[in-house]
Amino acid sequence: MPIVVQKYGGSSLADAASIKRVARRITEAKKAGNDVCVAVSAMGDSTDELLDLANQVTPQPPPRELDMLLTAGERISMALVAMAIADLGYTVRSFTGSQAGVITDSSHGRARIIDVTPGRVTDALEKGHIVIVAGFQGVSQDTKEITTLGRGGTDTTAVALAAALNAEVCEIYTDVDGVFTADPRIVPAAKKIHRISNEEMLELAASGSKVLHLRSVEYARRFNIPIHVRSSFSAKEGTIVTDKPAEGDTVEAPIIAGVAHDRSEAKITVVGVPDHPGKAAEIFQTCADAEINIDMIVQNVSATETGLTDISFTCPKTDGQTGVQALRKVQASVGFASIQYDDQIGKLSLVGAGMRSHPGVSATFFRALANTGVNIEMISTSEIRISVVTRADVLDDAVRAVHTAFGLDSTEGEAVVYGGSGR
Amino acid sequence: MPIVVQKYGGSSLADAASIKRVARRITEAKKAGNDVCVAVSAMGDSTDELLDLANQVTPQPPPRELDMLLTAGERISMALVAMAIADLGYTVRSFTGSQAGVITDSSHGRARIIDVTPGRVTDALEKGHIVIVAGFQGVSQDTKEITTLGRGGTDTTAVALAAALNAEVCEIYTDVDGVFTADPRIVPAAKKIHRISNEEMLELAASGSKVLHLRSVEYARRFNIPIHVRSSFSAKEGTIVTDKPAEGDTVEAPIIAGVAHDRSEAKITVVGVPDHPGKAAEIFQTCADAEINIDMIVQNVSATETGLTDISFTCPKTDGQTGVQALRKVQASVGFASIQYDDQIGKLSLVGAGMRSHPGVSATFFRALANTGVNIEMISTSEIRISVVTRADVLDDAVRAVHTAFGLDSTEGEAVVYGGSGR
């Protein structure tokens, strides 16, 4: 029997009524002739409520105990989903991450999956039971401690289970209809993407698209698991993330998959850095030691008369003050002049595998921004992505302008193939 | 290093502030030179809130999934208590029932402890950590399923851990100062009992005293673990439950330990039962098949002219309607006339090991009830207990009258040795 893995997030499990709706959805997949294994997140805001309780008790909870606390959230939702399924007359078994064989390293709060040994899940599926697994959690290989995978980890749990069970598809149910060419709250004309490659989805997820968790896409690519992102509130098809070409796919795929934006980063500029070999290394080693996640890096050309240069980089706002403090401590030894911190920035990214073979994409991109009067502060590119940093307050305008310039605005519902020239 | 096991109930863990208070209390025991292992219940009313969620999803949750759900409650409280202890600068490890080696049978919702294999707890204690264990829960021996021990099960967890760790004492922290000679809400003159035997404590717990869970007292008696019941809100000594004589105990112990009452039972009377051998057995087999917990049983003398008798018994009100329905189904085959159901009853029990050797106790007891105008509907006795069923609305008066008659009312704080005669 084909195996389908489904994932339901907290917003699909906000209360008893939503849980019953999700249960009906799960039993439909079973009724359609599949073995069904489901990964669930904690209900609604319950993870935040648990974090709030922890913060009331101590400003610095030990990571081991924080994981113990937070894993209660999925335990509650998985048991309730299982009850709702039983109420519909199906047999069901819920398993914690540990029971389902989700083996991780021992980095509490951001553990990585090392292996999945789903013996109990397989047994239960073979007996005809629907299986519910607590997302976001696992057990460490060496110490047998309960771990969590970090925010959004349930996507990764679902994909990892799909890989271990050799599932046909991993369906990620969420509160939107799929992956869009841009955030529909900013670009009302944004269209649902019907099919997208893993590579493009990775770039979108890394550039601020919140629909899928980055690590789950990496995992799906490695194990070649098709992901179907769709709404738990409708029966509509969503977005298929896969590298397999669609059947009967004769038209060339669109060049541009979509426009992502990100408001969660800050920019740190280290001013007046001596332009000697090794200075950049000292700066970024300092950031690495402070566990700052660096995103974009730009170094200006050195002014020859002074022998000094400026180095700018972006990092999550939540890491910003840590980064500034760590750098201040090495100011004398590195010998730079000052630090500027700026958290009023926005990042816009254009993603599309077609960029590789279609010149002219960057020209169209920068022209669209220029016509809207958007000033560009940093630029970074990959093979299939161009990202720019702008002022935060012009970000929405910039996203809309780029979306329109690449013909992504909805007309009859399918993305237009872009035919620009002269990159 | 001596090992102390402590237990904190939900009312001592109602919010972040109470959890911090409990943490301070725990670290004091550590500071005093003990290894400390603590069993905790779920916070405040959180078990009821989880039950309510389950009932919103289905009227009949599968017991396995209900246990999965409810065990989230202690997981949350144990992690928070551990965090609060870490915040005070101590190292700490929390363990689920399963991790702590609480092995049970597989009766979900009312599992019994088969064994405790506390390897991880012992390791952590030897490393100098304070250990927090989730109460009320375990893992089944055969199926490795998560189980719960039933309401009040955290008392049993604590005593079982104390036995397995060979602890000096099991301290049960609660929201009252100890075990009293009667419920102080009904008898303001009730006194705290300083020391009580296991046997007496068992009878009190079985007769409606809610301070200690019956099964935990049975467990403590079997493994000879002294229990210290005390308030988590004060530093006062509470009640020691032990069969060891107190040091320097020259005065004879009081005859009467206390007066318990119970409003949770109902009375079922089977009217007009043919007075043939085997009829009572049929009735009680019917109740056993319906899983009704029978408490007191009274059969009246048969009226010779009719050859019929009445059989009355008490059971928990929650089992009452099930019992009535089960009996109605066998009415024809057993051949009784009718069933009377009465849930307006109260039970009063007088408990004291001294009853055995002191005649006159029952005379004093019934005289006290008669003088208060209390009508007695059923009587049952054990070696060290007399229980009567009365109307519910006279129960409080009856408790006060008996308490006074046996000289239990507080004068200077110590129970008076009763010197009656002529039982």
From TrEMBL, chains A, B:
Keywords: Amino-acid biosynthesis, ATP-binding, Diaminopimelate biosynthesis, Kinase, Lysine biosynthesis, Nucleotide-binding, Transferase. GO terms for biological process: diaminopimelate biosynthetic process; homoserine biosynthetic process; lysine biosynthetic process via diaminopimelate; threonine biosynthetic process. It is an enzyme of class 2 (transferase). The keyword NADP does not apply. Signal peptide: none annotated. GO terms for molecular function: aspartate kinase activity; ATP binding. It comes from the Bacteria. It catalyses: L-aspartate + ATP = 4-phospho-L-aspartate + ADP. Residues 268-344, 350-423 form the ACT domain. Its EC number is 2.7.2.4. InterPro entries: AceGlu_kinase-like_sf, ACT-like_dom_sf, ACT_Aspartokinase, ACT_dom, AKii-LysC-BS, Asp/Glu/Uridylate_kinase, Asp_kin_monofn, Asp_kinase. Substrate binds at residues 47, 74. Pathway: Amino-acid biosynthesis; L-lysine biosynthesis via DAP pathway; (S)-tetrahydrodipicolinate from L-aspartate: step 1/4; Amino-acid biosynthesis; L-methionine biosynthesis via de novo pathway; L-homoserine from L-aspartate: step 1/3; Amino-acid biosynthesis; L-threonine biosynthesis; L-threonine from L-aspartate: step 1/5. ATP binds at residues 7-10, 174-175, 185, 210-211. One of its GO terms (cellular component) is cytosol. Catalyzes the phosphorylation of the beta-carboxyl group of aspartic acid with ATP to yield 4-phospho-L-aspartate, which is involved in the branched biosynthetic pathway leading to the biosynthesis of amino acids lysine, threonine, isoleucine and methionine. Belongs to the aspartokinase family. This is Aspartokinase. It comes from Pedococcus bigeumensis.
